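Aim 2, interim progress. The first record below pairs a target sequence with its C-alpha cells.
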Amino acid sequence: LMTMRMCGDDGTGNSFMHTAAIIKDGYKLIVNGRHLASEDCPSLMYTANAYRAYSSPTTVYAIPNTDYYTEWYGPIKTRMIPNVFNRVFKSDCLEDLYFNDPTSMDDSLYGPFQYDEFLLYNIATDKIEACALDLSITANLDEKNALLALLNAAALEYDSPDGNAPVVYAAFQAMMQSQPSCTDPDYVANVMYLPPWSDSNVATVDYTTLWSEFVDNYNNCNN
C-alpha cells in the first residue's frame, strides 16, 4: 500500500517527492513526513511534530509522552476489545518506555520521537507509529532502502504534471469491501489490512453511490 505526491515535473524530469508513504511486510516508510500534503507545490513548509488525541476538549501532545499515555493511550487500551486494540492501536515500544524508561518518554529530544527525511516504523509492533526505528542499524537501513526503491519506481509512473492527483474513490470502496460482517468483532481491525483494489474500477466508482453505501453500512452496524 503506498501513497505519494510529486511536485515540479515540468517535462524535464526535474521532479521531487513532496510527501510519500509505503506499507509492506509489517513496515511503514514515510518520506518528508513534516510536509503538509495539502500544501501547493512547490511550498515545503514544515509543521510541528504532534500526536493528536481528540476528546473534549481537543488535546495536542508534542510527543507521545507519559501524559499522552495516561490521558489517551491507556484509557483506549482499557476501553477497547483487547484483540482489536492489539491489531489497530497497540505500541510495544511506547508501553516499554512507559513502564521502564519514563524519563526518555518525556524527553522532547528523544531520538525515536524526532522527525527526519525518512521515518521507518515497525507497524507490526507499533501500530500508532510512536517510535521511529534507528536507521543507523543495518537491518533497518536495508528495510528503508528497499521500501524507498519501490517508491522511486512508482514515482516514475506518476502522471500528474501539476502535482495535484485526482481523488480516487476506488480506494475507499476497496476499504469498505475489505470488511466482513459488522457482527464480526474483528471487523474494525480489518480496515488496517486493505487488499488490492481488485474489482474496484477507478473509472466507474460514483462518489454519491459510494457515500450512500457507506451510510447504509454504518446504520446497519449500529442498529
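The second target in this work package is listed in the same format:
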Amino acid sequence: PGMAEGWLDSPQPPGQADLAILGFSDAVLQRFKRGGVRTVQQLVVTHPLDVMDKCCLSWNTVCQAQAKAAERVAPEARTALAILVEAVRFKTQIPALDRLLHGGLPCAVTEVVGPAGAGKTQLCFTSAAAATRAGVGEVVWIDSEGAFRPERLREVIQASRAAMGLDPAGFWEQLQRVRVVVGESLEDVHSHVQTVHNMTVGSVVLCIVDSVAAVARVVGEVAARQSQLNMLASRLKAVASRHGVPVLVTNQIHGGPNSTDAALGHVWHHAVNVRL
C-alpha cells in the first residue's frame, strides 16, 4: 500500500532545481546542458575540471558557477543560542521517559532497542496517540514487521483521553491522523521516508519506522546493507530537520536474549541521535 493520492505536496529540493535559477546567461546555460550538467546538485558535486571539459567553459566561470550553486543549497549558519532556544521536545506522556530525555523526544532520530516483547511497538502506539491529540498534522507510520494494530492504537488513544478527561469519542479523529504504509524491503522504507521528507512542512508531526532491522537483515551482502542503512539514516535525519519533528525507529538486539547490543552494525550504531 502506498501513500494516499493527493495527500502529499512534493516541493522540488533546492539541489534538484534547474540551473536557470542561478541567473546564468542563456549561452552559459546551453553549454551546461550540452555537457549534461542540468541541476544545481550536479553542478555542486561534479569536479570543476570535469565541468570545464564537458561544458567547454573557463576555470573562472566554472568556479563562480559552483560557488553560486553551493550558496543555493547550503543551509544558513545559526548560532548555538538560537538552536537552544528553538529546540522542541515532544512529550511522550510517559513522565519517567520524558524526564530521562530532558523533556521528551528531540527533533532527531531516536532508536528504541530491545528484545521481542519489550514494548518497542507499544511506545510507538503511545507516541502516536500523544502526537495526534492536538489535532494538528499527521503521524506517518512505516510498518515493516506487520506489527501495526489499529485496534491497539484505538485502545491506547481511548485510555489516554479518559485519563485526561477528554471526550472519548474524539479517538476517531486521532485515528484518522495516523497514516500507515507498509515497507517490505529497505528500498521500500527509503522510498516512504523520501516521500515524508517531501511533504508540506507542518503536515507531519511524527514519523515512525517499526522496524529497521526487519528489512535490513534480509539484505545478504554486508557492504550493500551498510550502504543502504547509511542512506536511510541520512534521509531520516533530513526528515527530522526539515519538518522539526521526532523520528522514532525500532530495532532489535543481537548476541543472545540477555544482550543489550543493538543490531545492524557500526554504521547504523553511529547513525542515530538517541538510543533507548
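The two ends are 30 Å apart (CA to CA). This observation will shape the mutagenesis plan for the next reporting period.
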